[in-house]
TrEMBL record:
Keywords, ordered alphabetically: Coiled coil, Detoxification, Lyase, Metal-binding, Pyridoxal phosphate, Zinc
Protein name: D-serine dehydratase
Summary of the function given for this chain in its UniProt record: Catalyzes the conversion of D-serine to pyruvate and ammonia. May play a role in D-serine detoxification.
Cofactor: Zn(2+); pyridoxal 5'-phosphate
Source species of the chain: Karstenula rhodostoma CBS 690.94
Catalytic activity: D-serine = pyruvate + NH4(+)
Length: 451
């Protein structure tokens, strides 16, 4: 059996897509289309790598948001720094394989972590993937002793690394350190795989509900304290089986990007640095995050970083937009509305806590009004106010004397609420570069497909 079924999900020709789109202006393109700003992606990626370097911690890049090789490379940077990844689907790992092999052949550390406790049916593909890479390059998460017992022989034979996933409050996957089953799980995993035990992993997904820099900083500190508590449960006799430092890997985009706040001299930053320095004496500390290169309205709504300065987090930091076309207008309604050429399959269905809509019109193409909706200000401008499967209704919010009517056939760009879901509706990204020309396509990146 071919355990790399990427052939089941053939990708379009990059050369053909480039011939179709490169050099074209956004206003001349068919819609809907999803657009990434390479300059903003690069800036966001460099900021993450920079703060990890200054804090002396590792970084593991999640690729589930974008599913492209081009952005995966930006996430880990160039040179000899480690190229370590997290994936949510095995097809992501299989598509990363050639790049990881290239890294390892050149002496660059590269590994991948399957970021969900694996289903039993994934084992053949995991083992096959591990056989292509250096021993220990493929890692999984475990949070259940029965699941581990069913797969332990394959993990040992395939030299697959194991992290124990800790629930630090998100209540999705993971085991709590207060669980009666937790000590037994540690003994079973470490006693079985020995030095292939990597450490502990937490995903602070509930940080998306935060509303301030303080909330995100609290989440980052809480995660580290939670994993320190987990590591303290390993008995000395089992610690002797480990030949390297255990890894404590923490993050979600709000908490991981909040690390940029920790370079300041604030009391909260001082508390974080004290904790981090203590942990680094015994453990390897690693941050992980995924949506941070592109960001979205959900991330902006967390206010995890200040709205100004070097580490600013605003709508101007968002590197993804969806291109829509106006197909009808309804100026006779209670508030002006316009029908646009994309709905939930292009924008996603998730709401955002900071405003009542599914996207905010950016005002960049010159024909969509000169007021951009400010969710923290006067709340005036065009938003995606209602949504259906294939269509969305743009609604004007606020005083109408500021409104420039939308015209049938005009194009608008929209910041989506959730970049991961918005991108999933498309086979490729159109790439612009705001450092050169933000309205002209300079490249096309193909998204990986399948599970």
């Amino acid at each position: 059996m071919d355990y790399f079924p990427t052939a089941n999900h053939p990708l379009p020709s990059v050369a053909s897509l480039q011939l179709q789109f490169v050099g074209k202006k956004l206003v001349d393109l068919p819609t809907p289309a999803v657009v990434l700003d390479r300059a903003k992606l690069r800036k966001n990626c460099e900021a993450m790598l920079d703060v990890c370097g200054k804090l002396g911690v590792g970084f593991r890049a999640h690729v589930k948001t974008h599913k492209t090789l081009e952005l995966a490379k930006l996430q880990v940077g160039a040179g000899d720094r480690p190229a370590n990844f997290i994936v949510s689907t095995l097809t992501e790992a299989e598509n990363l394989l050639p790049f990881m092999l290239e890294c390892q052949a050149g002496g660059r550390e590269s590994s991948v972590l399957y970021g969900v406790p694996p289903a039993q049916s994934t084992l053949p593909r995991l083992v096959h993937l591990a056989s292509k890479l250096a021993p220990g390059s493929v890692n999984i998460l475990i949070d259940n002793i029965d699941a581990f017992n069913k797969m332990k022989d394959a993990l040992v034979a395939g030299e697959i690394g194991v992290f124990i996933k800790i629930d630090t409050g998100y209540k999705r996957a993971g085991i709590t350190t207060t669980s009666q089953k937790f000590p037994g799980l540690i003994r079973k995993v470490v006693g079985t795989v020995g030095d292939a035990f990597r450490g502990f992993y937490s995903h602070y997904g509930h940080s998306y509900a935060g509303n301030s820099e303080k909330d995100s900083a609290h989440g980052l500190i809480s995660e580290l304290e939670g994993l320190e508590e987990a590591a303290a449960e390993i008995e000395d006799s089992y610690l002797k089986l480990l030949k390297r430092k255990m890894v404590l890997t923490v993050g979600a985009t709000p908490t991981a990007t909040a690390a940029q706040n920790m370079l300041s001299g604030s009391p909260r930053a001082a508390e974080f640095k004290t904790l981090l320095n203590r942990l680094k004496q015994t453990y390897s500390v690693e941050l992980h995050a995924g949506v941070y290169p592109v960001l979205d309205m959900q991330q902006v709504a967390t206010h995890a970083r200040p709205a100004s300065g070097r580490a600013a987090l605003t709508k101007d930091s968002v590197g993804i937009k969806v291109l829509l076309e106006i197909s009808s207008v309804y100026d006779e309604r209670e508030k002006p509305e316009a029908l646009a050429s994309a709905g939930s399959l292009a924008l996603g269905r998730e709401p955002c806590k900071s405003y009542p809509g599914w996207g905010i019109v950016t005002g960049e193409l010159g024909n969509d009004g000169n007021v951009v909706y400010d969710e923290r200000g006067d709340r005036t401008g065009w938003i995606v106010g209602r949504i259906s499967q294939e269509h969305g209704l743009l609604t004007w919010e606020g005083a109408e004397h500021n409104m420039k009517p939308l015209e049938i056939g005009s194009k608008v760009l929209v910041w989506p609420n959730h970049a991961c879901v918005a991108g999933a509706g498309f086979g490729w990204y159109l790439i612009v570069d705001s450092e050169k020309n933000s309205h002209t396509v300079v490249d096309v990146w193909v998204r990986w497909r399948g599970w």
